[in-house]
User: Fold these one by one.
Assistant:
Number 1:
Amino acid sequence: MQQTLVLLKPDAVQRGLMGEIISRLERRGLKIVAMKMIWMDEALAKRHYAIHEGKPFFAGLVDFITSSPIIAAVIEGENAVEMVRRTMGETDPAIANPGTIRADFALDIGRNLIHGSDSEENAVKEIELFFSKKEIFDYSRDIDKCLTGS
Ligand code: IDP
Ligand code: MG
């Protein structure tokens, strides 16, 4: 089953939107298999966002993501990477579709509340950065039968 990394960024924590965002993921039926509050340090931020090194927003992004505790979570399910990305909405809240987390709660590309891995390959790497194997739980839920009918 596919897994993906979700981060609730400092703006989600500071604005009191953690519950709202987690609730949206949960209500959709997505399954949370790991979750914790952490305070990212500069080294972890730079590794997590390494792909953006050299871009004009990189330093600001690292400053921002290390400015407050965040929530890190692993979501598991069929097509979890895309399901989470579509629930989040486009990177820039200004063009995200209404009904997505970023469109409904954010205004600015640099303060867009949530991170979700953009591919299965990156999800595997990102999950390893944030979670040990024993922090990720293998469990079943009764509601999974209702969500897919199988
Ligand atoms: P994503 O979060 O939707 O995957 P990425 O392109 O991977 O978007 O960018 C990572 C994060 O960097 C974004 O979520 C956003 O917070 C920030 N970012 C991306 N592009 C810009 C920009 O042009 N200005 C400021 N911040 C940006
Ligand atoms: Mg990205």
Number 2:
Amino acid sequence: MKTADIMGVRFHAVTLNEAVDCAMNRIHIKKKGYIVTPNPEIVYLTLDDPFFRSLINGAALVLPDGIGIIYAARILGQALYGRVTGIDFADLLMHRMAQEQLRLFLLGAKPGVAEQAAENLQKKHPGLIISGCRDGYFKDAQEAVNAVNAAGGAEVVFVCLGAPKQEQFMAEWADKLDATLLCGLGGSLDVFAGTVKRAPAVFSKLGLEWLYRLYKEPWRFRRMLKLPLFLLLAIRQRVFSKRKEGSS
Ligand code: UDP
């Protein structure tokens, strides 16, 4: 599979369909692993944290979530097909899982959110089996592992604890979980439960989902400042590598 290096993070150059095919294939052959969907904020976090970066790069699939990653790829001359957001990936994966009546466990978000998401998702994807839910505010990760395993396990677990908690959890506990595939999906359960609305299609078409999110959740302002910083870093990296090429 082709990859693109964005500031040390190795993204897979796949379309949404290819990403879901790859996930389904791993489920069929029972190959354990985890999937991550980094946005610019997460790549930014990896810059000062090589351990976190190694967790991201250790994933079976690293999907570019966010227009900022695509802009950075263009600036750095790296090939990515386009955005594959966590929500779109999860949605198509559940559609395919429902056709085969596969099991999904929902882990994360505030108490009650995963249950509401489960109700909505079961209506949207008849055939999908939600084997269980657990909120993301556990004291000890073992509690979460026990919840998944006590529910009889699942082919897929959506791990929605925010970064870097979800990536640490997936890397550390994958072997102990009775599940094939773990997907780190940030705030997706809030969207599936309807507590947070996704941007209208026109915003995502224009690559302005971040603007909608800022309007809805203005307290994200400080976190979002990382987006322009991230693009400036990409430009700087490009300029330096050009200079290096020129001098060698
Ligand atoms: N969360 C959680 N456990 C924690 C911290 C956060 O389950 O200890 C949940 C939080 O309730 C939210 C999600 O993780 O549902 C993180 O959402 P955020 O929007 O910050 O993530 P993003 O999509 O931006 O990565």
